[in-house]
Amino acid sequence: MSVNKAILVGRLGRDPETRYTSAGQAVCNFTLATDETYRDRAGERQKRTEWHRIVVWGKQAEIAQQYLHKGSLVFVEGRIQTRQWDDREGQKRTTVEIVANNFRMLGGRGEGGGAANVVEAEPQVAAAAAGAEEMPSAEISDEDIPF
Predict the structure, then answer these.
(1) Around Cβ 17, how many Cβ atoms within 10 Å?
(2) CB 12, CB 30: distance < 8 Å
(3) What is the 3-state secondary structure (H, E, C) of 12-35?
(4) Among 3, 63, 86, 94, which residue has the least CB neighbours within 10 Å?
């Protein structure tokens, strides 16, 4: 068994860019920044930002183009994909991207958030996400983890 799943929460680094394939299917690309804060050996607080390339297909791509913008806070769930190609100079290029199967716009109304802001690729995933929202948020201790 294998699992290829990425879950990210971050802010868009630029406005989404949407193109259409020759078959007319929308594909939207944007970058997402995630960050972490930690203390270095000297005890100083440091912040590290990681950039992720996000790809969204179909109706979701059109929704992303319409509602997301630079700085939007977004939850993204998808799979990690690596692509290789030769550029115009003949150099081999590689990119790692997250192909989103759903995303959720977070934040206030001005940030692209709102009540009905789950965009899913599969209806059963939407039902699971909706059910997860109803769970109470309680602290998780080591005793709660089954392994």
Answers:
(1) 12
(2) yes
(3) ECCCCEEEECCCCCEEEEEEEEEE
(4) 3
Q: Which residue is it, tokens 């909706």?
A: 130
Return the sign of the alpha-carbon dihedral for residues 74, 80, 86, 91: positive
Residue type for position 134: E
* Contact assessment for residue 51 and residue 33, using Cβ atoms and an 8 Å cutoff: yes
* Block residue for tokens 């392994």: 147
Strand 45-57 vs strand 26-39: parallel, antiparallel, or unpaired?
Answer: antiparallel
Helices (H), the chain: 58-67, 123-133
Q: Which residues contact 30 (CB under 8 A, 6 or more apart)?
A: 12, 13, 14, 15, 16, 17, 54, 56, 64, 68
84-119: pLDDT as tens digits: 999 999 999 999 999 999 999 997 665 555 434 444
Q: Which two tokens stand for residue 93?
A: 């290029």
Model-level pTM greater than 0.85? no
